[in-house]
C-alpha cells in the first residue's frame, strides 16, 4: 500500500473540505480540518480492514477475542496516523495548510470507556495484537457516557457527565446487520424429550437489541486492521402500532429509555465492586451479544460444527467482569446447538482463559443469588449446575479438600462468586506481574492453585511503546533513533543498546536537553491551564493514577507537608526546588478518596502562595486526569511515584510508561516495580518501605500500632495535628476523617509506617539530582531496560502460552 505524502494529504483534505463543507481550506475551522483528516485516514484503512477480514476468513484463522467491560482507548487520531506511517506527513500537511496540528488533534474527544489500568491495558493489547499481525479483536460496550469529567471547584472534585458522542465519532461504523437480541428475566420451562434429553424453553423474556459499532484497530506499518466491536443497547422494535394512544406511547418511551440505559454509562468504580443490578445487566448484555456474535461468525465463515469451536476460538476475559460468558456459552451450546452437558462443558473449558487484576477483597465480584436468579434465570440454573458438579468432584475426588468446600464453592453464603466460576471453567488463570501471581497462588487462590496448579501462570503487563514513547515523546524518539537507529521500533528490547552510551557525557547532555524541553512544554501547559508558574529547573515529581487509599497519594501529601513545615521553620533551607504534580479521579462514592483530593488542593493553595517557600515548593493538581493528559505529563516527569502499600498493586502500568520516558521510579517493592528493580537494580531507582511479606504478616497479626509512630515521631505528629486542628482548611472538620482513619482505624495502608523510609528515599533522590550526570545516567539505564515492558512482549507471551494463535 502506497503511503501518502504530505502533498497527498493536503490534496485529499482540501477536496474533502471543498465538497463536504463547501469551504476553502482557509475558511475551515480546526474541527472541519479534523474531520477531513479522519476521513482521509478512514479511506486508507477501509481496504486494509476488508483484506484483513477476508484473510482470516479464507485461512480459517484461529482467533482470540478479548472480552472487557472497559477499553480506555483515548484519542485515536495520532496513533492511527503513526501506525499508518503518516504522522510526520500529517503534521507537515496541517502546518502547510496553516493549522496547529495540536489544535486539530484535540478536536477529538477521548474515548474514556474505561476507568484506569485495566481498561488502558486492554487498549494497549489491541494495539500490540494488530501490530504483531495477530488475529485478535476486542468486544466491549459503547457507553454513551464514558468516565465522568472531573472539575475541581474550591478544591473539591465535582463530576460532570462525559458526553463524548456529542460530535460524530469518526472512527466507528454502525453494523446493523450484525445486531442480535439479548434476553433478560422470563420463565424457564423444561421438557423431557423422547430421547431423554431436556428441552429448554425460556419464555416471556425482556428483549434488548444489541447493535455493534466497529472501531478499526490499526497495526503498525503492517497492513493488519483488527476490530474493536462495541455494543449499543436499543429497543428491539419501534413504537407499537396503536401509538395513537397517548398513554401507551408514553409508556413505550419510558420503556425505550430503560433499555438504552444498558449502554448508558460506564460505572466509575476502579478496583472496587458495587453490586448494582444495572451493572449485572451490562455485563450480561456484553457477553451474550459477544458470544452469540462469535458463534454466528464462526459458523458462517468456517462452516464447522460447534464441536470445533475451541480449535478456532479462544476467549480471554479481562477480570471477572465478563465471566458470565462462561454460562452463556454453555447455554447456547446446550439450548440452541442441542449438545449435552458433558460435550458443552468440554468445549467451554477449552475456550476460556481468565486474567485476574487484583487481590483486593473489596474488588472481588459476587452477585446475590436472588438478583441473578430473577434477572438471568437460565444462566443461574447453569451456574448452579456447574457448582453442583464442581463440589461433587471435590467431595469424591479430592477428599483432602472436603472441609474447604465452603471457600471453594461458586455459590456460597447467598452469593455467586465470580472469580471461583472463572477459575473452575478456564484452562488458564493468570496474574499480571510476578509478585501478584505468586500472591494469588500462595494466598488468595491457594486452594484452587492446589487443585489446578497447571492452570496458573503469570503474564507481566506491558504498554504499547508506539503510543507511550513514539507518539507522546517525538523528541526522545528521534534522539534514540539518532543514537542507536530504529531496530527497537519493531524489537523494543533493542533499546538495551543505549547502555553503551551510559558514560558518554555528550549523549547524556542530549537526553537532559530533551527532558528539559518536555518540562518546559508541560510548564507552559500548566501556566495556560491554571495560571500557575512552575520553575522548569525544579524536580518534576509526578503521581498520576486513580485515587485510592492503597495507592497512597496521602503518603505523597504527607511528604509535601513535611517539606513545607521544614521550609517554614527555615526559609533559607538549601533545597532543590520541587514541583509535585498530581492527577487523579476518585470514584464519586469514595468519601476518603475525595477528602484526599481536597487535601492535595488545600495544601497546594497554601504552599503555592506562601512567601517563605520562595518558590521552592509547588503543588499542581491537574483536573480531569485522562489518557490525553497522561500523554502530556509523562514525557516531562523526572520522578515517578509508585508508592502503593506493598502487595496491593497487582502490577501498575504507569510505572512502565514513566520508565520508558526516562523518569526514575520512587517506589515500593510492589507489582511490576519489582521487575523494574530486577532489571535496573537498586542503584537506578529509589526503593523504600515495607516489603509485601511484611505487610501480609502484619495483616495476619492484626496490623501494627500506628499510634506509636504518632507518639514517637514529631514530624508525623505535627502533620496529623495540622489535619485535625483545622490548620489546613476553612473550617476545622475538613480533614478529621483522614486523621481518624489513621489513628483510630490503625492506618490500614501503613502510611505512617512507611513515612520515614519515604522521606529518606526522597532525600537521597534529591542528593542524586544535584549530580546531573549521575541522574541522566540512571535515567538512560531505565530507558534502555524499558523494552521488556512493551505490550508486544506481553502479547507474545499470551500467544505462546495461552492463545496458541499464529501471525498472518
Ligand atoms: N485494575 Br480489579 C484496574 O485498573 N481496575 C480494576 O477494576 C482492577 C484492577 C488494575 C490494577 O489495579 C493494576 O495494578 C494493574 O496494572 C491493571 O489493573 C492492569 O492489570
List the helices and strands and how they pair.
Layout (H helix, E strand, L loop, with lengths): L5 H15 L9 H29 L4 E5 L3 E4 L2 H7 L3 H10 L4 H5 L5 E3 L3 H15 L4 E6 L7 E5 L2 E5 L12 E2 L5 E5 L2 E6 L5 E6 L2 E13 L6 E10 L11 H15 L16 H26 L6 H4 E6 L6 H12 L4 H8 L3 E4 L10 E3 H7 L1 H21 L7 H4 L2 E2 L2 E3 H8 L2 E4 L2 H11 L1 H6 L4 E3 L6 H7 L2 H11 L2 H4 L14 H26 L8 E6 L8 H17 L8 E6 L7 H17 L9 E5 L5 H7 L5 E4 L11 H7 L3 E4 L5 H8 L5 E2 L4 H9 L5 H7 L1 H11 L11 H8 L11 H15 L2 H14 L5 H13 L5
Parallel strand pairs: 1-4, 1-13, 4-12, 13-14, 14-18, 18-19, 20-21, 20-23, 21-22, 23-24, 24-25
Antiparallel strand pairs: 2-3, 5-6, 7-11, 8-11, 9-10, 11-12, 15-17, 16-17
Helix pairs in contact: 1-2, 1-4, 3-18, 6-33, 8-10, 10-11, 10-13, 12-13, 19-21, 21-32, 22-23, 28-29
The protein binds 5-bromo-1-(beta-D-glucopyranosyl)pyrimidine-2,4(1H,3H)-dione (GPU).
5-bromo-1-(beta-D-glucopyranosyl)pyrimidine-2,4(1H,3H)-dione binds next to α6.
Annotation, overall tally of beta strands: 25
Q: What class do helices, strands and sheet pairing give?
A: alpha/beta
What is the total domain count? 2
Computed CA radius of gyration, to the nearest angstrom: 27 Å
CATH class of the largest domain: Alpha Beta
Tell me the CATH topology of the largest domain.
Answer: Rossmann fold
Poorly predicted segments: none
Overall shape: it is globular
Approximately what portion of the residues adopt beta-strand conformation?
15-25%
